[in-house]
Amino acid sequence: MSDLNTATAPNVQNTDPVVTGNAPLPPTGKPPGPWKIVWQKFSRNPFAMTGLVVLLIFIFVAVFAKFIAPFDPAKIDLMTANLKPGVDGHWLGTDELGRDIFSRLVHSSQVSLLIGFSVAIIAVFLGSILGAISGYFGGWIDTVLMRLIDVMISLPSLFINILVMAIFGTKLLYLILILALTSWTGVARLVRGQFLQLREMQYVEAARATGVSHSGIIFRHLLRNASFPIIVNATLMVGGAILSESGLSYLGLGIQMPATSWGLMLSNSQEFMLTNPMQAVYPGLCILIVVLAVNFIGDGIRDALDPRQKNTRRRLAKWRKNFSKSGI
Amino acid sequence: MAEKLLEVRNLTTGFLTEKGFVKATDRISINIEKGKTLCLVGESGSGKSVTSLSIMRLIDYAGGVILEGNINFKGQDLAAKKQEELKEIRGNQISMIFQDPMSALNPVFTVGEQIAESLRLHQNKNKDEAWKEAVELLRMVGIPSPEIRAKQYPNQLSGGMCQRVVIAIALAAKPELLIADEPTTALDVTVQAQILELLQDLKEKLGTSILLITHDMGVAAEMADHIAVMYAGAIVEQGTVEEIFANPSHPYTVGLLQSIPGFEGERGGELYTIKGTIPGLGNLPQGCRFNPRCPHVMDKCRQVEPGDIQIGAEHKTKCWLYEDQAKVAAAGKGEHIHG
Amino acid sequence: MTEYLIRRLLQSILVIFLVSIAAFGLMHAAPGGPTQMMISPGLSPETAAVQKHNLGLDKPVPTQYVIWLKNMLKGDMGNTFKNNTPVGDLIWPAVKNTLALMSFSWVISLLIAIPWGIYNSTREYGISDQSANFITYLGFAMPAFWFGIILQEFFSIKMDWLPLSDMYSMEKHGDLGNLFMHLILPSTVLILVNLAGYVKYSRSSMLEVLEQDYIRTARAKGVPERKVIFRHALRNALIPIITVIGMDLASLVAGATLTEKVFNWPGMGRLFVDMALAREYTVLMAITMITAVAVVLGNLIADILYKLVDPRVQLGRKGGKA
């Protein structure tokens, strides 16, 4: 009952019925599960849904790239170099080596999405395990892992990526691994935080005393409290990994010929700015659109989780003028 | 009847939520007389705080909107004013103190600065004068060695002291009306009594009217001249403190009184509780809003919402149980039944 | 405060020490690490062994590490493999050039971002807020280096308004006006990236403060809204903003690798990539250490600033109860 307990109450009115948001449950029937609620809110968000549709289109293109691309993306033919868009069935023209730009764009989507998703999955896996170990055991293990994170974030991750790729060589596997190794810290902190919270809670003691399996409690607690934040984190990681790949490939430290990626396409384009400026535009646009889509999805999930209701606030700002007696 | 300082008529305040507009207060009418204390009593979630914030028009910043009604303060309708026009009234003629004193003070300014600011705003004092008076105010609200305390930051003060500082800020401009929203809830029990005593002292010394918001009938008994009982956004019963305590009419008021430890309704050491919980304001029941929890519920209660029924000189209640009495009273005194 | 400072300083030294071990270990774990790089190719095994001995590469790795660390502490960062130039001769000019580019764009970013974020917090979802939101999304989703390339194509190649790349035009070395013209495009890229983060951050920091009880108290006191924003809210909102800004201090030295590469800016970022591609390990280790020191120092400064502006932290918890 002391001052400390009440010092940080953030709400405008603690006793206010609306702000505390005890939204009444429907009188009959089962209350909808958390996944369903999130999906309901998510599906009402036009940006998030657009992002989802766009991402699905890109995934479709990546999976069926072979059938969609009209040409072999790696086929070099100097006879057909630098064709204008539309000539000989090259919708977007050809590059300086006569490769079909559209086909390269289509095949590049494979690399970007593969890297984006595998990095996110590995990083979530790694981060969850390390965060769980850190939070569960505490003590010196926790200290060591936290110091490790300190060291990791004391260097810009692009910096570490460049270093490792330059030293160990530019293989796709290394690229994925190093991108994952530089992005797990966020998830680890999240999971660790959940474990620390779990330790504080008395019901764990109670459950333990009644013989409920320990791992069962942990798993259920984590699933309930950390799964959505982790998903949000992972979604943003997908976008981050795609961007990092493009940067590294642009520098010559990522994807190598004859494979193709949007970043690699950009690294060539700068030499041919004078002759074929559009060559730089397309791959960048693809990256921008995919990452935007992924970020919209991530933000959509976050907003769906946020009890503060961004959309309500937005509508309120509009409606207040009409409804308020004084008009403010 | 004494002179009215504040007269609230049919105040309805709404919030926009996911499910559309929700009325947090529903046609509230209260009066505060000069130099008197009105206690607004009710459970948390009943809309007491919204009422007080609406009177201050701070509700605009909390996402709420006044949908209808008047807030007449000395002949001006505060509900119809623009925010810029209110700065002469807020903190000057009407002041407010809050539930949680620790978070009500700005952490990056010293408490002296925060009191002095009020004086400089409303009394055109220069920096030195304002500071001197701020120290005096601290002394008045019972803070020992105020010269030193004035130079400290809120986090260096205890909760009780912070509340005294908040009171000092509120009283700096010698307001005619002080709104106190659960001023003791966040404090230790021993400190609670001191703060209430301080408020009572100041009221007598300065002649300030007080609107005291509390969930505690005991506090109301001690402090109030008038009591208004609020339930789920509406005033269900109001009257003088004597009327309410001698003749509690609305079943909800009766329940509130019985749940005070040591009150007459207590049976065999078992504490009375009102069954059920306060409904969310988004889904009020049809008819009387108390009917799902009411021990005397009748068919009519589930269908038609009762209006104010006059049952004493200043005593009104919203309950069908007193329908007949009202007719008698109306016939006898020619008073109007508010609806 | 002093005790805290000392603890924080020791922590920083530990982090830098760990980075140094990690960096050194990484370089030596590399296939074709320093050992192979330093030995001239085509030597007979005997001569190679002599050369190895002369360079101290036959000693165990931990000993090599200690020697390297000692030299670093003395300010001797070694020489490059290829031309045997002292590493310092490469790094310090690069630091200077990076500082010029980064501080220029950084200061402009902050001057725009903080007032803009504050303004947007008071007009949520207005036109200004929505445009900031748009820029934030772009800044986070767009490859910055691509934006640079597009700017080059338009402003340098198509319109010929601004120089394409480098820091100075030929024969104009040291000319400030010329430097400014060269700064515009890379700074635009960096400002966009910075704005994305800073506007959003200062807006949300401000919004959070505006919801606090003490802001309500100020309004209840009759403080005019302008003063509520600029006096009561701003001072509190700036506390986390300052922290974030402090953490970014390091980038002033570390540079922006991709942007520098696109615009051929002779700074730390470009040097790092070039040296990474050339596998110049001494330079890489030196840059790694300088960057780590810069980051740790930036965080330290941020922490100290935080303690200076926030009386709650500065004075500790001793006033919690009376």
Automatic annotation (TrEMBL), chain C:
| Compartment(s) of residence | Cell membrane
Q: Which InterPro entries does the record match to this protein?
A: BPD_transp_1_N, MetI-like, MetI-like_sf
Where, by residue number, does the polypeptide cross the bilayer?
12-30, 99-119, 131-151, 179-199, 237-258, 281-302
Q: Where is the ABC transmembrane type-1 domain?
A: 95-302
Keyword list, A-Z: Cell membrane, Membrane, Transmembrane, Transmembrane helix, Transport
Its topology with respect to the membrane?
Answer: Multi-pass membrane protein
| Main location per the UniProt record | membrane
> By its UniProt entry, which PANTHER family does this protein fall under?
DIPEPTIDE TRANSPORT SYSTEM PERMEASE PROTEIN DPPB-RELATED
The similarity comment for this entry is: Belongs to the binding-protein-dependent transport system permease family.
Report the protein name in the record.
ABC transporter permease
